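Input (structure):
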């Protein structure tokens, strides 16, 4: 049965609307990577914080003789020493935090998708759930799983919905053509019926009136 001409076309997701969600996914992936490698980023961040907070004090105490460069060297050395000594504590903490951040990222992205684009789960529900479980494996933490999975989900959705829109447009064009053909057939049928009625009237009048189509009684009266 052809679709109605006034039926609404199916919705189609576009990459422009997917970009903000992909950006959120990338942020959580970056945080996961940072905590996964916290044995490196932890001391580095500590050294940076130490440099920022102590450089001004050191410069004031030494009347400008020692400043940012010296503070950076001292803080870097201290952070490296602390990191080497406490790596057995820092590394497990980073893994746990990476798992927590990854789960929070999946939860956040999942809620955003449910609220703004629930259609995406029509083709990707199992993929989303499976990827959530796999991404919590510590060894996978260095891979931007959330971003890659969300990108794949959007790619599948866009491909399916574009195909559905093309099918809809073809069906609409076919429906319009069928309606035009039916209208044309109806017009031709009405014209044929009108011409048949005229021919029948003319033949009947000719039979009653002779050569000129004037009924016999009308000629006698004249």
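Output (sequence):
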């Amino acid at each position: 049965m052809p679709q109605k001409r006034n039926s609404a076309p199916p919705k189609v997701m576009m990459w422009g609307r997917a970009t903000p969600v992909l950006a959120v996914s990338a942020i959580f992936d970056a945080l996961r990577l940072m905590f996964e490698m916290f044995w490196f980023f932890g001391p580095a961040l500590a050294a940076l914080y130490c440099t920022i907070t102590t450089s001004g004090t050191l410069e004031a105490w030494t009347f400008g003789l020692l400043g940012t460069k010296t503070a950076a060297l001292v803080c870097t050395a201290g952070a490296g020493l602390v990191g080497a000594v406490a790596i057995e504590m820092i590394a497990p903490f980073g893994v746990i935090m990476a798992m927590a951040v990854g789960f929070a990222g999946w939860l956040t992205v999942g809620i955003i998708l449910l609220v703004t684009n629930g259609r995406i789960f029509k083709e990707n529900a199992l993929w989303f759930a499976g990827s959530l479980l796999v991404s919590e494996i510590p060894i996978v933490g260095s891979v931007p799983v959330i971003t890659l999975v969300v990108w794949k989900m959007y790619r599948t959705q866009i491909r399916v919905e574009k195909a559905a829109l093309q099918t809809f447009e073809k069906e609409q064009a076919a429906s319009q053509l069928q309606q035009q053909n039916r209208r044309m057939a109806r017009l031709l049928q009405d014209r044929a019926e009108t011409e048949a009625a005229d021919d029948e009237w003319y033949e009947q009048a000719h039979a009653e009136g002779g050569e000129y189509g004037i009924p016999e009684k009308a000629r006698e009266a004249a």
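Notes: Confidence is low (pLDDT under 50) at residues 1-5. Residues 145-209 form the longest helix (65 residues).
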